[in-house]
Amino acid sequence: MSGLAVSNSPGGTTAYGCRSQAQWNKLVNDAKSQGFKIIRIIGFDCSALELASSAAATAGLQIMAGIFAQFGTIAASSSQIDNDVQRFRAAYTKYGAGRYVGLTIGNEVQDSVGNIMAKVYSVRGYLKSVGVQTPVSTVHTWVDIRNNPALCGADFVGANAHAFFDGGVNSGQAGSFLYNTVKPALQAACPGKKIYITESGWPSRGGNNRNAVASVPDEHNAISSINCAARDTSMTIFAFEYDDQLWKNGGAIEQSFGIFGKILPGDALNAYPDPTLSKHNNNSISFCTYSYDVDTHGIADVQEAPLPHQQTYQTYQHRVDPTDYTIIPMQSTDGDTHTPVTQTPIRQWMDDEAYEAVPITSGRTAVLPVSYSLHR
Questions:
Q1: Out of 3.40.50.12780, 2.40.160.20, 3.20.20.80, 3.30.360.20, which CATH number does the structure's domain 3-255 have?
Q2: Which one of 173, 181, 233, 305 is most buried, counting C-beta atoms within 10 A?
Q3: Which top EC class is given (predicted)?
């Protein structure tokens, strides 16, 4: 995952407060240490835009800046939004265009689509007139965007998508839910638009939602699943959220999406260690599980991500046997021949080391080494 959504309030407190500069610095450094490159803030209260931008600039991270409609509706919040636009303009001048990947107006605002987008277009037009080139949009739930395509009429799609609230999937399916359910719906509603999943996570407390279980192990599984799926960079995913926010209304579920101090630092972003898969030298290795649709030719392109000692990518083509969906290595683009094998467990060769993979039996799901990412 590229991004991390954060609250302006320190975690673990039952009353809403404000993070200090030192706390923002720690947050950003924590995020960077786990590979996150973008921080998403949802409001400018508590001097959050300035403090987060300062911390991000020092660490070399970027910001997705969000203006919150503090008074509920767009009309009631209009003056506050306008004031925050001026704050953003000043930050843009101070920290540079490259610091900000986007500006969002509202987060799931309970107002008409027309009112929301009228304000988005007004802000975008004003900022362009004064030389600010940051892309502008709004953020809403993926279901609302699917049902109201006008919400993606600005520069990009900003969609909140939590598999937990669907209820039909378990934590290990959170990543495939984003790419097999949410992504096609947003692409159909918003053709050609860049898609940011502005928050996606899993609660650790608060009960179950049918198949979705709220627990620390399930939160770990969900974040791992989302991170594996996010190796497909056709969407940019923001993990939700940095730490637990106990001040929130809605009970334990809403309060327990935090990942740092709970499952991070840790192995949640290292993919799944699968005991049925082993490296031939008996060292442990992690694997990602991907779900995808096999095309009419039974071909899936798999890109090998560079290991720490590598500087280049190599793309391998694998033929998918439609009878059992076993992955059969074929010819790589760098000219090396990877001998097809059809027995199970199959053997996949990479960097002169063999990996064994169990047969694929659960529908169209492929188990690949963590150093591979699926290109849909």
A1: 3.20.20.80
A2: 173
A3: hydrolase
